[in-house]
Amino acid sequence: MDFLQQHSLKKLNTFGLDCKAAYFVCVKSVADLRYAINKNNKQHPIFILGGGSNILLTQQIIPNLVIQNGIKGIEIVEETSDYAVVAVGGGENWHQFVLWCVRKGLGGVENLSLIPGTVGASPIQNIGAYGVELKDVFLKLHAVELSSGNVEEFLLADCQFGYRDSIFKQALKGKFLISKVFFQLSKQHNINISYGAISDELAKKNIIKPSIKAVSDAVIAIRQSKLPDPAQLGNAGSFFKNPEISIAHFDQLKLQFPNIISFPISEEKVKVPAGWLIEQCGWKGKRIGNTGAYEKQALVLVNYGNATGQEIWALAIQIAESVKEKFDIIITPEVNVL
Ligand code: FAD
Ligand code: EPU
Description:
The protein is α+β, with helices and mostly antiparallel strands. 24% of the residues lie in helices and 28% in strands. The protein folds into three domains: 66 residues, Uridine Diphospho-n-acetylenolpyruvylglucosamine Reductase, domain 2 (2-Layer Sandwich); 113 residues, 2-Layer Sandwich (Uridine Diphospho-n-acetylenolpyruvylglucosamine Reductase, domain 3), CATH 3.30.465; 104 residues, Uridine Diphospho-n-acetylenolpyruvylglucosamine Reductase, domain 1 (Alpha-Beta Complex). The protein is globular, with a radius of gyration of 21 Å.
């Protein structure tokens, strides 16, 4: 285990921002992590890094000890004819884990194909896509408390999962490293193609009774058609969350903007796609210096090469202000800003 100083994070964040960690270490086990915690001896605040696909680094040097989660391992720990419980090291790559499940015939995560990042970060914002969220397959997790090095277990109810939210983004923010996640996956597949784009993609291929592999392939194709590949164009996926507004507010907006889109979420509220709001404000495909809103998905802010985190943050603020002015809606970042 190497303790590094002034370590470049450029290749470790998907925006490709040129930023350094004052102190850096990659841990491959809970024992490594405890060693690093003891060695640090509360000298420097700790920041946990996974795949760097949901962070915006706005400082040239992060004064923290950045601990990269490299804890690996995928293991079936319980199995019946209906389901399998799989324990996965937090440092495993999420998409590789999904592909492993598809190969093994274990269903439940296929709609979450091609989401970048690590398994350990997946509970942080309860990752979601195409009608499925992490909480739908989540059983429990193990996390190491950074102040003590103790391992604690969190069950589903303890995690307080919400839309792009969990206790690890709220009361316990920055306090734990998620070292292992346990998933309950099904052998009797419950195919979910409720999200329109998936059924359209399957229809294109004349697939009537899709397998989990067919759903995974369809999700991959949809994502590749509209989201930029971070290896080609720096980005962190959706920059903002989709805002929830009251039905009264929505009805009022509908009079002025008859094409406005919404998704029902409760008796009182609807969700409005932030991408639509941002596009209506004229940002889609617009470039300001080295940054801009992606041409095929306005919710995705991109780095055209040499942008700084400050520039991207300045653009995000401008975008949020224009949405507030036009629609009286506050959009908040999904990305973790440092
Ligand atoms: P990082 O970016 O490294 O970290 C994110 C946050 O989690 C930080 O606050 C970090 O401190 C904390 N953290 C990371 N690992 C741990 C750990 N083990 N223990 C404790 N804290 C930790 N997200 C979706 O939900 N749905 C999508 O469809 C989606 N699509 C995306 C598409 C693209 C092209 C990109 C670039 C991103 C997308 N995202 C999506 C966002 C991102 O992939 C997820 O949020 C992912 O879970 C982040 O994982 P990461 O390992 O890269 O986390
Ligand atoms: N839209 C526009 N203009 C745009 C972008 C979108 O009008 O520039 C419209 C679309 O036409 C569609 C609606 O907005 O009617 C929703 O768009 P899309 O299906 O692309 O999904 P999204 O709401 O923009 C969310 C998640 C994504 C997730 C997809 C698929 C959030 C913040 N984002 O995007 O997650 O992959 O749904 O489920 O909830 C992420 O979190 O990083 C992420 C990429």
